[in-house]
Each structure stands twice: as C-alpha cells, then as structure tokens.
Design goal:
By secondary structure, this protein is of the alpha/beta class. The chain has three domains: 8-99, Rossmann fold (3-Layer(aba) Sandwich); 112-307, UDP-N-acetylmuramoyl-L-alanine:D-glutamate ligase; 316-473, Protein-Tyrosine Phosphatase, Chain A, CATH 3.90.190. The chain contains 15 helices and 21 strands. It has helices spanning 16-27, 41-48, 59-69, 86-93, 101-111, 123-136, 199-212, 223-228, 278-293, 298-304, 334-350, 371-385, 409-419, 431-441, 459-465, and strands at 8-11, 32-35, 52-54, 74-77, 98-100, 114-118, 142-149, 154-157, 164-167, 182-185, 215-219, 233-236, 245-253, 256-263, 266-273, 316-321, 324-329, 361-366, 390-393, 425-427, 446-451. The protein has a ten-stranded mixed β-sheet with strand order 8-7-9-6-10-11-12-13-14-15, with helices on both faces. A six-stranded mixed β-sheet has the order 16-17-21-18-19-20, with helices on both faces. Strands 3-2-1-4-5 form a five-stranded parallel β-sheet, with helices on both faces. Helix 6 crosses helix 9. The N and C termini lie far apart (56 Å). Residues 470-475 have low confidence and may be disordered.
Length: 475
C-alpha cells in the first residue's frame, strides 16, 4: 500500500495517532503533507520534519496538494474525520485513494519485526516503556505511540534497528489488521461502549488481534485474559510460579518500587523502578518481558530502568501554582482513575514522590468523557473518586455524543456524595469556573490531580491566567 513515489496526505495530521505516522513516513523519505486548523507543538514539530501542513480542511486544500505533488496522493483519515469533511469530500470526488490511519499503521507493523501492545489500560505506557528500553539498550527502534515518549520528545520515531513498537488501539476494532511478530495484551475491561455492545464483543476483537500475532505475551493477573486467551508467555506481579516473567514488589514508595524479578520461577535479580504504583510495575514488567523475548540481555535492561519515564499526560506534572502541585493525567475509566488516585495517595502517605515537593493532600479533578461511558460506569467513577480528600467535577466532555437523560457531571457528583457524605464535592459550570473553584477551595501543599480525556488538560493554563484576574469573582 505504501509507495515512496506516492505522496501521502493526512487529514487532521495533528492528531496523536496521525502525527506519529506522518513523522515516520517523512523520515523514511515520503512526500508528506497534512491539514490541521490547530497550531500545536505537535504540528510545529511536523513542519520542522518537512511535513507541509495546511490550516484549512477544504476542497481547495486537496486541490493544492494534488497540484503541488504532481501525482494523486494517498489520503489518510482517522475515525475522528467526519464524512462531511470538505477535504474528504473533495478527495472522494477526485477518485483519490482514501485509507484509514490503521491501514497505514498495519502496513508499517506488517512490513518488519514488530511489537504491538493492546489492552484496555496501560497500552500507551507499556509501549512507551518498551520503546524506551529498546532505545536505551542500543536497539534503535521505530515507535508509533499514542502519547509523547519522553526519551524521544515525540510520539513517532523512525529508527534504523530491526524492531517497530506500536500501540494497538482497540477503540474502533481496527487493530485486527495488525500482524505483529509479538502481540502484548495488558488487560481487558469493558470500555468504548460506543463501539462495543458488551464485554464479549471486545474479547472477540482482541482474540482476533492475538491470533494475528506471531507470539502472544499476556498479563496473567487479568482474569479475563486468563479465561479467554492462550498466551505463549505470561507475566505477573502477584506470583512467580506458573508464569514466564514475574516482578514481586518488596518495597512500594511514592517515588518508585523495588521488586524481585523472576523468569520461569527463577530469581534473576532486583528491579529498581522509578515509577510508583502497582499498575506501573505491571506495565514495566510487560516491557521487560517483551524485550527479553526479543533477545535483550536482562543485565542491560536492569541498568536501563533508571531511564524509564511515563508518556505525556500520564501523571504529568505541569508545575506549582500558588503552592499547589498541578498534575495532568489521561485517566478516563474507573480502573484508571482508581489506580492513579491510589498512586497519588501513596505519595501523600509516604512523603516521597517524583513531584517537585511532597504533597500534603489529594485533590481530584475529574472530567467525565462521553455520555455513554459515564452512563456505563457512573458508580465505578464515584467509588474511585472517594479516595480523594476533595473532589472537583468538571463539565462532561461529550466527544460529539448526544446527551443521555440523567447523565451529567451533576449526577456523578451526587453519586460521589452518596458514597462519601463527608467528602466535599464541587461541580464546575465550565473550565474557567473550575479554575476559580480550585483557587478558592484548595490549599497550598495540595496535589491537584486533573484527570480525563477531554479538555481538562487545559486546567494549568487557566490557573496561570488567574494570576492576572481579580479573585473576587471566584465561586
């Protein structure tokens, strides 16, 4: 499908999945262009890599691309591009080849030895850690990740080594196209209820992904994986017996974990992991196991662990605002919210953390994402949020979905109050109101943990903007 003689044009090139592909193809000598109305750091980085970016998504853009290329381009879209998009309509009118981003990713994955990471939670972090370890052990990997990899300062990287590491997103089912040399499954829980009617449908899709992989590495601690999958290799953070790879925690702190590492029940040494939280221990173990299956020596991996960092928007410290430590996180499923808050609570209780200073109190800021997900998991979100000392609920981010009667941020706030009557829970009318609420109701020393897949990641900028505004308007 990919031919260096054919230009490639990405509609919505600034998206986290699209931009990685564009960067890699540009590095491999393809003529790459794209469109995106937003001027973001990702878009600006693409321009520096030789990608021509248009700021309008109209028929004229496609005409300019065709004229400049002197050949019919391959047009790439994602699930976020609506059928009514002006560029897409013009591309179809001209009879240009239009493919989904997953087709481009599949072409890359299927063309070389590859590791594809799938699962409901932790796939961005796990694929980031695999790519980081491979780079730190001189494997020079290519990487296509759904988050910014700190070691590369990018979500896409072209390497000259034999391996490609990719995050395999299950949200739209397109990962069944991937034929990876090694498939990795982190866990399975029902999510993306806008696409999957039930858990069985999700399991079936991931089984197809597993069967398409040359070998399968899976998490033995996940009951759904144990019951429905036959892996070539298993990992566990709970027991060393009966699995191929295990990491058993000896000491869990707010700034990391010390664990014993086993292969086939035999103790090989210790792991000093600079990432706190049991979920991160599992993610790191999966990364180590994947690298070991690709022949990387354990001693080399053991030495490289100090370089591990989570991807962007995964417990990402934005800075200190008026004494409050502001952290941004992508958690938008009850299990993710619970794991992130549990890790943050460990930082508060232990007095140790990777943050600029130890937090004194845990303040959760949560933005529900999609009406369908909020309806499905309302009780789960409420239970997870009760771990905090103070809760702010941001306006629900619809992601284009139509409202569902009775489902709102107010409904979630009320559910939290019902479970924890003594917990202060505040609802925000909008993000500016949220920033004012945080300013007036939180305190210096608080860890303000903003979670969600919507626009709550802009909280830091809104707090900074308050410096120039009179606080008398705080509500």
């Amino acid at each position: 499908m990919l031919d260096r003689l054919q230009p490639v044009h990405f509609i919505g090139v600034g998206g986290i999945g699209m931009s990685a592909l564009a960067a890699i193809l540009a590095a491999r000598g393809f003529s790459v262009s794209g469109s995106d109305p937003r001027s973001t750091p990702v878009v600006e980085a693409l321009k520096l890599k030789g990608v021509r970016v248009f700021d309008e998504q109209t028929a004229d853009t496609i005409q300019q691309v065709v004229q400049a290329a002197g050949a019919d381009p391959l047009v790439v879209i994602s699930s976020a591009v609506p059928a009514s998009n002006g560029e897409l309509l013009e591309a179809r009118r001209l009879g240009l080849a239009v493919v989904h981003r997953s087709d481009v990713l599949a072409a890359l994955i299927n063309a070389q030895p590859s590791i594809a990471v799938a699962g409901s939670h932790g796939k961005t972090t796990t694929s980031t850690l695999i790519a980081t370890l491979l780079e730190a052990t001189d494997q020079d990997p290519t990487a296509v990740i759904g988050g910014i990899v700190p070691a590369f300062a990018s979500n896409g990287r072209h390497g000259d080594g034999p391996l490609l590491v990719a995050e395999a997103d299950e949200s739209d089912g397109s990962l069944v196209k991937f034929k990876a040399q090694l498939g990795v499954l982190t866990n399975i829980e029902l999510d993306h209820t806008d696409h999957y009617p039930d858990l069985d449908a999700l399991i079936s899709t991931l089984q197809r992904f597993a069967k398409g992989s040359g070998r399968l590495l899976a998490n033995r601690d996940c009951p759904v994986l144990r019951a429905h999958f036959e892996a070539d290799s298993w990992w566990s953070t709970q027991a060393a017996e009966g699995v191929n790879f295990a990491a058993i925690a000896r000491e869990e702190r707010g700034d990391g974990t010390l664990a014993d590492y086993y292969e086939d029940g035999i103790l090989l040494g210790s792991l000093s992991l600079p990432l706190p939280g049991r979920h991160n221990l599992s993610n790191a173990l999966a990364a180590i196991a994947a690298c070991r299956l690709e022949g990387v020596p354990f001693v080399s991996l053991q030495q490289a662990l100090s370089q591990l960092r989570p991807p962007g928007r995964r417990f990402d410290c934005r800075g200190i605002w008026q004494g409050r430590i502001v952290v941004d996180d992508y958690a938008h499923h009850p299990s993710e919210v619970a794991a992130t808050l549990s890790m943050a609570r460990l930082m508060v209780s232990s007095g140790r953390s990777p943050l600029p200073k130890p937090p004194q109190r845990l303040v959760a800021v949560f933005q529900p994402h999609r009406y369908s997900r909020t309806a499905q998991f309302l009780d789960g979100f409420a239970a997870a949020l009760t771990q905090a000392d103070l809760v702010f609920v941001a306006p629900l981010y619809s992601a284009g979905e139509a409202p569902i009667a009775g489902i709102s941020s107010a409904a979630l706030a009320q559910a939290v109050r019902a479970l924890a009557p003594h917990l202060q829970v505040l609802e925000a009318q909008n993000l500016d109101h949220l920033a004012h609420q945080i300013a007036s109701s939180s305190s210096p020393g608080d860890l303000v943990l903003a979670m969600g897949a919507g626009d709550v990641n802009g909280l830091w900028e809104r707090l900074e903007a308050l410096e120039d505004r009179p606080m008398a308007h705080a509500a």
